[in-house]
Amino acid sequence: RITRKAEWPGWTPPPQMRKRVPDLPAYMPGGPDNPLGARALYIGSTLYRVHGTSEPWSIGQAVSSGCIRLTNDDVTDLYERVKVGARIVVNH
User: Fewer CB within 10 A of the end CB, N or C, for the chain?
Assistant: First the structure.
């Protein structure tokens, strides 16, 4: 389920990502340069989310820790349509 929604969310990189990229800051405030992009939809009590990106060229590449990245336009559209509590099914 979608448990939370955020506009221009801040980001705390998970430990496994900071291990892969040691120069990542411990926290990045929301904004156009933030990797989570314009919006984020949080999935349950996990660290996973559906979010935008500051690097749209990276969509479709294996560069995340498991989140679902969309263009900022697409995630903003989805954000407006989805309510907190909505069921989400991820097939891979």
Answer: C
- Active-site annotation holder among 5, 39, 49, 51: 51
Burial of 27 (0-12, 13-18, 19+ CB in 10 A): exposed
Contact 36, 2 (CB under 8 A): no
Judge whether residue 39 has pLDDT over 90: yes
Question: Domain residues of the chain, as ranges?
Answer: 2-81
Domain 2-81 has CATH 2.40.440.10: yes
19 three-state secondary structure: helix
pTM value?
A: 0.88
Q: Which of 24, 59, 67, 82 is catalytic?
A: 67
Closest alpha carbon to 34 in 4, 60, 67? 67
Active-site annotation holds for 67: yes
Residue 29 annotated as catalytic:
no
Q: What is the mean pLDDT of the chain?
A: 92
